[in-house]
Amino acid sequence: MSESSIIKINHLTKKFGDFTAVNDISFNVYQGEILGILGPNGAGKTTTIRMITGVFHVNKSNCIKVNGIDILESPEYKSHFGIVPEVSNAYLDFTVWQNLNFSGLLYGMSKSEIEKQGTRLLKLYGLEEKRNAITKSLSKGLKQRLNFCMALIHDPNVLILDEPTTGLDPLSVRLLRSQILELQKEGKTILITTHDLREAEKVCNRILILYRGKIIADETPENLRRKFKSETVITLEFDPKPNNWEYILKELRDKFRAEQKNGIIHIISENVLQDMASLYDFVQNKNLNLEKIKVIEPTLEDAFIDLIQNQQKSEKL
User: Tens digit of pLDDT for each residue in 148-168?
Assistant: First the structure.
């Protein structure tokens, strides 16, 4: 990943009447980076994407630059993008190939270029056998694969994905996740908006969290987990369960923040390696039969919920 900025957002604002959807946000997207934009409904994610891609008008210069081009100065910047919108832009009465061919023609590609690139993409996304199928006959997962092919037909260096895996089956999600990571390896810069926090955690190098049109976090997934939800839990299961259960729990509480839930002991840990070593010593000294020990790390979802709840609490103060 390069330090070169492919997309530069500078004090971007968007209002609809009295409602401010995007409120003076600034951020960069770097060469080869996968940047995820997260936030609750109405946070401004899709509005931001639609301004970057030119769907919504930007009325101030130097707010958005793509590959160094101010989007108000030249409409040619759109040729740098491949866009997979939240709602498919494929023509339902076209065949798969007709949609690909039409997309290529829009970008000024020759017939031979479309044939070569389109055939490669159909094979890559498992759509070879659907080449002549009418698009409306495809499942949602196959339509989304077609959307990726249409976005990539002109080999753009920036890919913008708006909720790319919403409502897809697990096989399609896995395929698209794999392809997103492969596209990054090829040097493409990728901007994703999503509600799927697990997918964001797996593919994104950096996360922006929007709330009420403002950026409230700009961190790597790891830093978000550590900064906003730092607690790691170690669980202990015994078989057979000790007869002196309450006494064991009391002794653990002398050293740890411990509680018992449904016969499983939960230890809140701030230093996993140190605490694991102490727990093994404790188990051996007490001659307990430890059946299972597990470390549960905080997730991006934990951090996201914690951060949004903190914002909501601060608004009520």
Answer: 999 999 999 999 999 888 888
